[in-house]
Amino acid sequence: MEVTNRYITIKTQVDGDPKVSxxxxxxxxxxxxxxxxxxxxxxxxxYVSIDPYQINRIKSQSSSQKATATAGAITPxxxxxxYGVAKVVASGNPEFEKDDLVVGYITWGEYSLLKGGNCVLxxxxxxxxxxxxxVGILGLSGLxxxxxxxxxxxxxxxxxxxxxxxxxxxxxxxxxxAKLFGCYVVGCAGSKEKVALLKEKLGFDDAFNYKEExxxxxxxxxxxxxxxxxxFDNVGAxxxxxxxxxxxxxxxxxxxxxxxxxxxxxxxxxxxxxxxxYKRIKIQGFLVVDFxxxxxxxxxxxxxxxxxxxxxxxxxISNGLESLPSAFIGLFRGHNTGKKMVxxxxx
Length: 347
Prior knowledge:
The chain is α/β, with parallel strands linked by helices and 347 residues long. The chain has ten helices and 15 strands.
């Protein structure tokens, strides 16, 4: 049996704000069977994760492209690989069988042909939870929040935590983990609706709309009159500068993302290095791949919190392969609330 596989690719490298016209829908014939002796795997894609870091992969150049295999440059015309959930259609790999549900790196397409020796997949147990949770709260976004907060920030009960992009896929979970741990948490977001959600549903102690604050340093001084102990940074630029200016001695910054810089190369954070030195502030960048050793702890802890209702999954799901480009572009315009993903097909 053979199918016509539809997939999304880029027409050319994209430097600056991405547009729908930068992407195109292509098709190719894909046999749904494998040659004898092959260790390849063919999967039907169900959910695809939409992540800001992918913008750096479609640029003509970015230092991130040499950091890890999953951040490598994407060639125009070729498939775009991304984290997601799929069902095995055919397998020459003894670790996977037909109809297995798997999570890992698939493609922006209806089907993915994965080379068995190089594929990054694992089978999983739904544990009575929605399939989409594997893409976000129980996937790499969740692990990023968990490891970034507990392993990088090393929190202490009662500390004061500031989270930027707090309604994003990672930020909302950092705030929730911090509250469960016993910290005081303030987040910022880009609309009054998101601010209300942070306070009323996710349990943040306070939140503010950064677009309404002409002076971020003064704003943070209002929300943290006694200073910030931990800043979980998802945006960089002026927000990082303002946070450092308001940090306490031995404050910690987890540098998770710099979304403000991804589409505007003129934006650069310039925190006061006098503050960094004399307050002994630790600023640490990290990638989720650094912390796969805590995945089992993360998964059991997060699953327990979900079952007891102490943790909320915030998801933003678009439907259909064609919606992939607009879903991706929306990340840089503040359109998403929570984990952005695209449902490509029903299970």
